[in-house]
Amino acid sequence: MVFEHEIPKGSRLYFGKVARAKRALENKxxxxxxxxxxxxxxxxxxxxxxxQSIENEKKLIKFSxxxxxxxxxxxxxxxxxxxxxxxxxxxxxxxxKWFYVQPTFTYPSTEEYQIGCEWIGHNNIADIMNxxxxxxxxxxxxxxxxxxxxxxxxxxxxxxxxxxxxxKNGEIASLFKLKCDxxxxxxxxxxxxxxxxxxxxxxxxxxxxxxxxxxxAKEVNYSNMIIAxxxxxxxxxxxxxxxxxxxxxxxxxxxxxxxxEGSCSLGFALYTDSLLKILED
Length: 281
What we know:
Elements: H1 16-35, E1 39-40, E2 46-47, E3 62-64, E4 70-73, H2 78-88, E5 97-106, E6 110-119, H3 125-138, E7 144-149, H4 151-160, H5 165-168, H6 172-176, H7 181-187, H8 192-198, H9 204-218, E8 225-227, E9 238-247, E10 250-260, E11 263-271, H10 272-280
Helix pairs in contact: 1-10, 4-9
C-alpha cells in the first residue's frame, strides 16, 4: 500500500535548511561558471538519444511518443547539450561554453541533481580539470581527483589479448595472475612520478596514450590527485583522458573528453547531493 505522503525510492525532496544550502551551492558554482564565460542552458527532460550516453541501457526510463518513437527521461546531459547547441541553436549562436543545473533520471526512480558544463570544440582536458578544481577550492573542499585515459585499458586488452571486461569490472586480481611485469607496475601507478617511471617500459603501442595522460596531469594545479591509468568508467562517450572526483564512497564529479558532431569537446558534471554531503560533514 502506498500512502499519499510517500515519495518513490530514489527521488529527491529538499526543504528548509537543505533547500537553502542547495540553492546557495548552485548559485556559487553558477557564478564561477558565468565568470569563466559559460552561458546557461536548460535542456528538455525527454530525449531521443540517451542510449548513446549510458553504457547500461537498462538504466534508462523509456516510453514512446505520439509517433511510437522511443523516448527516454534524461539520464545524462552531455550529448543532448552538444546536439541542441550544434543542430538546433547553431544558426542563432556560435557560443561554445555552456552550463546547466538540472536533474537526471535513471531506472527505476532515481533522481540526481547535477551542475555541469560543456566546452564545445575545445581539446585541452587540463583546462576543464583546472576549472573543476577551482570550483572545489572555492567551496573549501579537497576530495580526490582521479585522472585516467580510457584508451589505455583498451590498448592493454588488445596487446595482451584479454577481455576488456576485466577492466570494466575492476578485476585486478585476474590481471595480476597474468604475471606480466610491466602490467603489474602499471596497475600500481598512483602518481605523476609513478607514471614517469613506467611510461618507457610498456609496449610501444601503449606509450603514446600514457604520455598524453602524463602531459595533461602535469598541467593540473591540484595537490590531492591520483593517476589511475587502467580505470574504466561507465559513460560510453568518453574517448580520451577523463576524470572523476571522489570523497570516501561518494562520487562528487565526473568529466572528460568526448567527440560529438565532428569535433572534440570537454565537459563535467558535479553531483549536487554528494557536494552537499561533504560540505555538511
